[in-house]
Design goal:
Elements lengths: L2 E19 L6 H8 L5 E19 L3 E5 L6 H8 L7 E6 L3 E4 L12 H11 L4 H15 L14 H14 L4 E5 L7 H16 L3 E5 L3 H7 L2 E6 L2 E7 H15 L6 E2 L3 E10 L2 E2 L4 E2 L5 E9 L6 E9 L4 E6 L13 E9 L7 E11 L3 E2 L6 E6 L32
Parallel strand pairs: 3-7, 3-8, 5-6, 6-7, 13-20
Antiparallel strand pairs: 1-2, 1-4, 8-9, 10-11, 11-12, 11-14, 14-17, 15-16, 15-18, 18-19, 18-20
Helix pairs in contact: 3-4, 4-5, 5-6
């Protein structure tokens, strides 16, 4: 099978400028004007290598994920592959037309209408207007933006923008599609439709590169993955192996840094306790209940508001969903203020193993506030099932139903 992408020893260096100020210098913007930055300030520069010696190959038709924690270098790598920036060292070889959707706000001209941007992107891919016109109706139908085609895209919501941008990337027949987390902006219906389209593209021999913090999305879409740590490739392997390695590493370095802030909702803290005692290591006894506490701040009134958490396997499979809105309609609204929400995972619910607590907050059908960034790995360390005479017996599945077995002898 032919290669779609060849990456050979690329590295990327950024120059970081530090400005130091003495204790006697005035602070803030006024101080900068008054001191002119020449008496009490000194500056220094530092080289930061976002990527070091990255090499890999991608086969035609391969669906490959790029997995790693925030700051590992995933987005920098995709920008280099998309020719948004150049590597400091090394070379890349792209065989075929590449279409990239890296973040909301890229790829379209904000002053042009949706219709005009479709034709502009086709031209950038080397397509004639006649070729784009053949695909136009399919793009509009997939993106579900027909009413707004002649509206400048700067007036689109983030969801509308992503739907149209993805449809353009997918339907204008690129050989390679590059996606960086943007589908998290869309609703669940559009996400599933997009994943199905990407699988269809791959079956037609097109190549897909995908970055997401949602391990369930990565597992659902991709067949291979590269794992990046601190700007270096740790491995290229089957997607299940890469996800498992990524999540096991996350178990050791901890979860998301708080607070997580958005323009409408801030997640201030996530606490887990057993018997009233906090467990900073998130290592729990499965025979005892686990109390979960979420502290969050609403900056404005919101309707169709959801907050709670998912319990997931280390491969991103959803085991259970616990949302406030599941309980009563009046809990789907929130007014400005700081809130504490508590829930309990019952004793004996999870078998021994590693899991992920993913805090979820959204406006239903509109946006996901934390986009799978609010992840907290945890461990159930004590077995909660099976005969104690066989403690080393393998456990199966994730939850224990504790059925009420009854046994009677019905014949000799």
């Amino acid at each position: 099978m032919s290669k779609s992408i060849v990456v050979d020893g690329i590295s990327k260096k950024f120059r970081i400028h530090h400005q130091e100020q003495s204790k006697g210098a005035r602070r803030g913007l006024l101080g900068k004007f008054l001191t002119r930055g020449d008496q009490n300030q000194s500056s220094s520069d530092e080289d930061f290598w976002a990527l070091r010696d990255i090499s890999f190959e991608v086969e035609q038709g391969e669906r490959m994920a790029i997995v790693g924690r925030n700051g590992a270098g995933k987005s920098t790598l995709l920008k280099i592959l998309s020719r948004v920036m150049s590597p400091t060292e090394g070379r890349i070889e792209i065989r075929g037309r590449l279409s990239s959707l890296l973040e909301v706000g890229t790829g379209f001209h904000p002053e042009l209408t949706g219709r005009e941007n479709v034709f502009l992107n086709g031209a950038l891919l080397g397509m004639s207007r006649a070729e784009v016109r053949k695909k136009f109706d399919a793009i509009v139908d997939f993106a579900e933006v027909e009413r707004f085609l002649d509206t400048p895209v700067k007036r689109y919501s983030s969801g509308m923008y992503v739907r149209l941008a993805f449809a353009v990337s997918a339907f204008l027949e690129p050989d390679i599609v590059v996606l960086d987390e943007v589908l998290s902006v869309g609703d669940a219906h559009f996400q599933q439709k997009s994943y199905a389209k990407m699988r269809e593209l791959a079956s037609q021999g097109r190549t897909v590169l995908f970055v997401s913090h949602s391990m369930s999305a990565v597992k659902d879409l991709c067949e291979t993955a590269i794992l990046i740590e601190h700007g270096r490739i740790k491995q290229k392997t089957r997607v299940d192996d890469a996800i498992g390695d990524y999540m096991r590493h996350a178990m050791h370095v901890g979860g998301a840094n708080m607070p997580l802030e958005t323009d409408q909702i801030d997640l201030l803290a996530v606490h887990a306790t057993q018997g009233g005692r906090k467990n900073p290591n998130f290592n729990f006894d499965g025979n005892l209940p686990i109390d979960i506490e979420l502290i969050y701040h609403a900056k404005e009134s919101l309707r169709n508001f959801r907050i709670g958490f998912y319990i997931k396997s280390i491969f991103g499979e959803i085991i259970s969903r616990v949302l406030l809105a599941d309980l009563a309609p009046d809990l789907e609204s929130v007014e400005p203020g700081t809130y504490r929400a508590t829930a309990q995972i019952p004793e004996g619910f999870l078998v021994a193993g590693d899991y992920v607590l993913e805090v979820h907050s959204s406006q239903f059908g509109v946006r996901d506030y934390f986009a799978s960034n609010a992840l907290q790995p945890f461990r159930i360390s004590r077995p909660t099932l099976f005969n104690l005479q066989h403690e080393r017996e393998q456990t199966f599945g994730h939850v224990y139903l504790r059925p009420q077995w009854q046994l009677e002898r019905i014949s000799d």
